[in-house]
Design goal:
Radius of gyration of chain B: 31 Å
Number of strands of chain B: 3
Strand content of chain A: under 5%
Helix content of chain A: 55-70%
Structural class of chain A: mainly alpha
Strand order of the largest sheet of chain B: 2-3
Helix content of chain B: 55-70%
Number of helices of chain B: 11
Strand content of chain B: under 5%
Largest sheet of chain A: none
Radius of gyration of chain A: 20 Å
Largest interface: A-B, 61 and 44 residues
Oligomer: heterodimer
Number of helices of chain A: 9
Shape of chain B: elongated
Order of helices and strands of chain A: HHHHHEHHHH
Order of helices and strands of chain B: HHHEHHHEHHEHHH
Distance between the termini of chain B: 87 Å
Structural class of chain B: mainly alpha
Distance between the termini of chain A: 57 Å
Chain lengths: ~210, ~260
């Protein structure tokens, strides 16, 4: 029978440092997937996975053995990613707005357009849309980006987002809304087979 | 009729809006809001998650190897106590061996020719010292790396680092004195610098502020301490891999 995560945690806390390897082997790959969806970059993701596991190890005393270890680890991973995105935004603030014009395929392929019967025209439109998506994602704040990825890509609930990011439910909702609003302002004119649609009722400006 | 706000429409798409029944009713009755909702729906449905590349087959192993040496020891009071006693015993043994080897080398009338029959089973004091010093440098390096990469969250819990620094400090003093005695000023100097940083950490608060952390990092960086420790550790390791030089050498050989 497989040893539970909680039992391994107890073993590590008792002083068996090498037992932590079991948790690394069990959870590294799933953390990788979560983080990659938010960073879109493999090297950054690998670093964040390591930082997540280190942080988890250091905080192991605070883990409640009755809780779910993977959920706990997921929260650490998301917050490490958020820290990373914040730090990168600070460091590369000047470049942030250039992504739309000059997207890095590794960095910017945060989200993809569904490929339905991709004929030549559609492929062109798809590539154009990807560039626009990349640009729009570059305009999101790290919190909006993480919240949108969690809600839209991973189907996490607003409650989970608020708990993970330590936000009020209303703030979590607002982060998702702001993200969609920004994406919409940038992308909606190009959605719908590439023919510009009419402006939204709100004219691309914020409501309230 | 009041139309739905953009926020209501967006949140309704995800099922997160308040009063969803009322919104549904409104959408059924209001063509304009329904058109807005459908347009949003159309755009968001085109966005799908990025396809995540599969990491290499040895990804887990690589991750473990990358973090293993950065994991501080954990354990209860008894284990720490036992660990400390064991370490003190090793430190005492090393001290005796260092001093003994030093005196033997200093007062012997002539060097003892190395035995060539390969039957010597006695422990080589210098090798033991090198192993102990190598271990000490490795642990010190881990601590310094940890501090340089510690997340700056405003108030940083330094308890684990402080404990490790205290443990290392005593050993460091012993090795520094030994290095001075065997005439290796370069190693003694680096251990002296290391000792000052260790003392700063060991005697500081268990929770440090961003500026405190920055100050410690500045000390480590300005003295190039991490680099120096790595260089010495590398020298120690290379000497350990040359057993023929160690077995016939005298105790005054540089660390």
């Amino acid at each position: 029978m497989e040893v539970t995560d909680a039992a391994v945690v107890a073993q590590v806390l008792a002083g068996d440092r090498d037992a932590f390897r079991v948790l690394v082997e069990r959870h590294s790959r799933s953390i990788f997937r979560v983080v990659y969806r938010m960073t879109g970059n493999q090297q950054d993701t690998e670093e964040i996975v390591q930082e997540t596991l280190l942080r988890a190890y250091k905080s192991l005393e605070r883990f409640e053995l009755r809780a779910n270890f993977s959920t706990w680890l997921y929260r650490i991973a998301v917050n490490r990613t958020l820290d990373f995105l914040n730090a990168r935004k600070t460091q590369m603030h000047k470049d942030a707005y250039q992504i739309a014009d000059n997207p890095d395929p590794e960095e910017s392929s945060q989200i993809q357009v569904q490929a339905e019967a991709p004929g030549p025209d559609r492929l062109l439109l798809s590539a154009e849309m990807k560039r626009k998506i990349a640009g729009a994602m570059g305009l999101l704040t790290p919190a909006e980006r993480v919240a949108f990825t969690m809600r839209h890509m991973e189907g996490r609930s607003i409650e989970e987002i608020s708990q993970t990011l330590n936000l009020k439910v209303s703030a979590a909702k607002n982060s998702v809304f702001r993200a969609v609003q920004k994406l919409r302002q940038q992308l909606e004119p190009y959605a719908g087979q590439g023919s510009p649609t009419r402006p939204t009722r709100w004219g691309g400006s914020a409501v309230k | 009729m009041n139309h739905l706000s953009e926020e209501q429409i967006v949140l309704h798409y995800y099922g997160d809006a308040d009063a969803p029944g009322e919104i549904n009713q409104h959408l059924a009755a209001c063509a304009e809001c329904r058109a807005e909702f459908e347009r949003l729906q159309s755009m968001l449905r085109q966005i799908e998650p990025l396809e995540v590349p599969e990491p290499a087959a040895n990804f887990e192993q690589k991750t473990w190897l990358n973090i293993r040496d950065r994991l501080p020891e954990k354990g209860g009071f008894l284990r720490r106590l036992f660990g400390a006693q064991q370490k003190w015993a090793v430190a005492g043994l090393v001290a005796v061996l260092v001093v003994g080897a030093f005196l033997a080398g200093r007062y012997s009338l002539r060097p003892v020719p190395p035995k060539s029959d390969g039957t010597t089973a006695q422990a080589n004091p210098q090798k033991i010292v090198l192993v102990a010093v190598g271990d000490h440098l490795e642990r010190s390096q881990m601590l310094l790396v940890e501090i340089m990469h510690n997340e700056d969250t405003g108030h940083i819990d330094f308890t684990a680092e402080q404990q490790l620094a205290r443990d290392l400090l005593d050993d460091n003093h012993l090795y520094r004195v030994s290095a001075q005695q065997v005439g290796d000023p370069q190693v003694a100097r680096v251990l002296d610098q290391l000792g000052r940083v260790l003392a700063e950490i060991a005697n500081g608060p268990s929770e440090v502020s961003s500026s405190d952390l920055e100050q410690v990092r500045h000390t480590i960086q300005s003295e190039g301490l991490l680099f120096k420790v790595r260089v010495i550790q590398s020298e120690v390791n290379s000497k350990l891999q040359q057993p023929e030089k160690l077995s016939g050498g005298n105790a005054n050989q540089r660390l």
